[in-house]
Amino acid sequence: RYDDSIPRQKYLQWMAEWGKEIKRVLKETGSLFLNVGSKPTSPELPFQVLNALLPEFRLQNTIHWVKSIYIESESYGRKFDINVGHYKPINSPRFRNDAHEYIFHLTKSGDVRLDRLALGVPYKDKSNIARWKNGDRKVRCRGNCWFIPYETIQSRNNDRPHPASFPVQLAENCIRLHGTKKDLLVLDPFAGIGNTALACQKLKVNFIGFEIDPYYLKTAAKRLKAAADKPLDKR
């Protein structure tokens, strides 16, 4: 089970060790998507983790997972403000509420071709479509800021028992961005309660996961079965 009490240097050394193993089994055209959050008292942690992996990988993209956002109406020309998402409040006069986490996209070469338009969004101004040589392109690249809120839950113990889980949609976005080829195999060395596995199940992608905690493993299996038993129109 997770242990947040180990010394920082030992933790970073461990990150480097499993990073070497991931590189060993990763295809030359493969991608490693690493979600790293931090505490207000140690905002440097994501960058220290990244630095521990850089001897083996190239940083190809940095993605910001936005969990909560507030947009004033005046900034986008509408009548109402937007305030959506979930975050863990921080009761401190020194720090702001942490409403985002990093997703580091790492590859062996730094130039792996991606399916950028798999997560495409419509053009705000339709006249922009004509600027592309491919006139039938109706969407543009979503960019590197993804707003993906947590689902509202009734009980953390029952619905989200793992302390470091992420939404299934986040894993799905990463897989789709890399490209869902027929021979794609996704490996999650820290499977937790199975969110990456659920994303693969939805996308019909092959999956291998590792998890040392029996309770998390049982929870993941239960969630996968429940998702498989759902009617197709409700998945």
- The SS-based structural class is alpha/beta
Count every beta strand, where a strand is a DSSP E run of 2 or more residues: 10
SSE order, one letter for each helix or strand: HEHEEHEEEEEHHEHEH
Taking the sheet with the most strands, its summary is: 4 strands, mixed
Can you summarize this structure?
The protein is of the alpha/beta class and 235 residues long. It has helices at 8-25, 45-53, 73-76, 156-159, 168-178, 195-203, 214-229, and strands at residues 32-36, 58-66, 68-71, 82-85, 100-107, 121-122, 139-140, 145-147, 185-188, 206-209. It is globular, with a radius of gyration of 19 Å.
Task: Sum up the structure in keywords.
235 residues; alpha/beta; Rossmann fold; four-stranded mixed β-sheet; 7 helices; 10 strands
Question: Could you characterize what this model shows?
Answer:
By secondary structure, this protein is of the alpha/beta class. The chain folds into two domains: 149 residues, Vaccinia Virus protein VP39 (Rossmann fold, 3-Layer(aba) Sandwich); 80 residues, 3-Layer(aba) Sandwich (Rossmann fold). The protein contains seven helices and ten strands. The protein has a four-stranded mixed β-sheet with strand order 1-5-2-8, covered by helices on one side. β9, α6 and β10 form a beta-alpha-beta unit. The longest helix is centred in the first third of the chain and has 18 residues. The radius of gyration is 19 Å and the shape is globular. The mean pLDDT is 88.
